[in-house]
Amino acid sequence: MTFCLLKRLYELVDELPGFFLQVSKSTIINLHYVSALNKSLSSCLVSFAGSHKKVYASRRYTKQLQERLNEMRSLS
Fold this sequence. Notes:
Structural class: alpha+beta
Number of strands: 5
Radius of gyration: 12 Å
């Protein structure tokens, strides 16, 4: 899906519930649907449950993504 917004992505993610996270300059993901992280030296590929889609998380957001997923796992 593609959306056209007049807000910046970081402004939008601040308005969304806590289970949404910005993982690159152009991508926000729903953490409830993340099924796997495939990390390498240069990138982090995020896979989703029930979908063939994958997105890349930039190095800038990878640590926060890992921490948030660990938090969610410990709460479950």
